[in-house]
Fold:
Amino acid sequence: MSFEEGLRAAAAQLQARLDAAVSALPDSAVRDAMAHALRGGKRLRGYLVMEGARLHGIAAGQAVQAGAAIEALHAYSLVHDDLPAMDDDDLRRGQPTVHRKWDEATAILAGDALQTLAFALLAEEATAPDPAIRVQLIARLAEAAGAGGMVLGQALDIAAESASAPLTLDEITALQAGKTGALIGWSAEAGAILGGANPAALRRYAAALGLAFQIADDILDVTGNAERAGKRLQKDEGRHKATFVSLLGLEGARARATRLVAEAEAALAPYGAAADGLREAARFVIAREM
Structure:
């Protein structure tokens, strides 16, 4: 199976699990908004979970639980990120953002509910028979998503918009390690945790992959097609934000992303050819634009 086929297969499994989880909730505008927010997307984070789990002998039917959890949490972050108080976006994944299709209150509540859904999925016995493994996944996700991870990165990003001086390259790298890298890191480590294995190699892989992902996003914001991307582009320059492109130049950013992908691939050496799917995932990250 090619990487593209594997990504599509994982996306279908993840969507089915998420649809089942949401459809079990009481009928409400919040439930409908959750379902709307969970449609579309590449499902890269969920794929990383499922592929990492496969490397450690975990069946897809089990791994889809953790994969769906990270996709639910990622969707929450996007719903809140799109709000007027944050990025104020009208389009996400090629469809109206939740606060545009409903209203701000519904978007906030739907985001809250998607976040709690993520932890509810991880708490289910289907995620892992050993409750200690479930607790470890929950604790690590709380750390990655919270005020020391994704939320911190988002806060630093917002603060940078009104700062008196643009961020330095080191500051942007640290910011993005939280905003983008923390959830990608959890996604890559989850399979090893499910298998009771040491996640160190996958952690190194994820650190390089997460940064490459953000650099590719910065490039896409400059050079991409909004219709194909399914969201508004060219936002960063209008806000005078320092980005990897503004600091390194377009070609410098591309070169940095390419080096990071090579680092991600090298980190997978202990797994040999069995990790080719994850290697292809790293190449896919920058192939979105390059």
